[in-house]
Known about the structure:
Blueprint: H1 4-10, E1 57-59, H2 65-75, E2 80-82, H3 88-102, H4 106-109, E3 121-123, E4 139-141, H5 147-153
Parallel strand pairs: 1-2
Antiparallel strand pairs: 3-4
Amino acid sequence: MTTLSEVYRNDPITDRHIIPLDFDSIDEVPESHTWPRFDEPINKIQTHNIKDPLIPVIDLASPNARNLIGQACETWGMFQVINHGVPSELVKNVEYESRRLFALQTHEKRRVLRSTDGATGYGVARISPFFDKRMWHEGFTIMGSCGDDAKVLWPHDYQRFW
């Protein structure tokens, strides 16, 4: 079976599809990020409770979890899970480190920019080239350990990532 890393190496993308927009450096939204208006009424989007337009919450302990995940992906493209078995202390630590990472200045985060043929690191989603307009987000993809990237970002405070 081919790994995701191998697929990315065999199908590299350009820097334009990796580097997120530095929102601190602009005064107005550039044309590259201006998406067409979406006029479909919100009431056409189906959720687990049409009166509650929040992101669907899926209980992984539910016998129907698989179907609910499929429905959430088809209608929302995202969902939140509960009863996943991940210790709350680990979730808190990941949230803390994520906030610490994204609080860095853009030039600092770019030190761990994902390569054009890479799968991990800082940048926009690999699906970006499939759209005419650029996405309004930044992300950090991890597969395995992020210790090497942590060492670049925090040379004196990276030990907990190993």
